[in-house]
Amino acid sequence: MGKKLRQQRRGKGSIAYRKLPHTFDVNVSYPTGKGYDKFAEVIGIFNHTGHNAPIMKLLYEDLTKGTMLAPEGIKIGDKMHVGATPVYLLGSALKLKDIPEGVPIYNIEGRPGDGGKYAKSAGESAYISSKAGGIASVVLPSKQLINLSEECMAQIGVVAGGGITEQPLVKAGKSFYIMKPRNRIWPRNRGVKMSPVDHPFGGKQHHKGKSSMTSRNAPPGRKVGNIAARRVGRKKR
Length: 237
What we know:
This protein has 237 residues and is mainly beta. Helix content is 6%, strand content 23%. The chain folds into two domains: 57 residues, Irregular (Ribosomal protein L2, domain 3); 120 residues, Roll (SH3 type barrels), CATH 2.30.30. It has a four-stranded antiparallel beta sheet with strand order 3-2-1-4, with no helix packed on it. The protein is elongated and about 65 Å long.
């Protein structure tokens, strides 16, 4: 008897397909609160399984603690600022309206108060290309240009840990443990490499042997491939 398809097993929600509880237990968003405007000191820098960039532990001047993504070049004991007052220090969190054009920024909010959505991976940074009418045009690491409100927050600098994706993995086990805290099952076997009892595309020919077009109403064990696709292939120019 064959086993269920991967999407069926994931839908059931067994322990193999659940993320670890400590994967994203560190909050790297900006402090919330009306009129939040404080200096902070970096009291620690650590790595976390849910992020590929280092995280810095902060002690604010009101003796509260917090965490943020660490910029390249910061060290323990350095000072930074979080709030509406424009203080230009490495790692400081400012509103886009107070950041000059061309300055590297990261951890950029998509909407005011969402905590940061863009340029958060190790070694990434963006910059403001222009401002007009309360809108800031930001160039992301992918060279995409997006328009954001000038009330959105961002940190000054480049995310630390650049080059982490360039080092060789050397062995398969390291790749496995990189994927594990991110709730990704690795390695993934292709359906054409499986037995016929395990996948509709399985068999010793190692090719599908049938159309990959699948009905929207197909039963769960057959619903693989191009599901109710309107079209497939490349568009004609």
